[in-house]
Amino acid sequence: HLFVDHGLPKEDVSISGYWRLGMVEDEWQASKREFTEEIEAAEAAALES
């Protein structure tokens, strides 16, 4: 939303999802890369629309 709809440059922000609901910190850290890839793919698809 911030990047696609509002055009906020990613290099100007620092956002950290501390961990996902239902996960302990170690589980969140292990899944964070996949989560980030999913978000970036959704952003790319939204920009193509």
Automatic annotation (TrEMBL):
Lineage: superkingdom: Bacteria
InterPro entries listed in its UniProt record: FNR_nucleotide-bd
Protein's UniProt name: NADPH-dependent ferric siderophore reductase
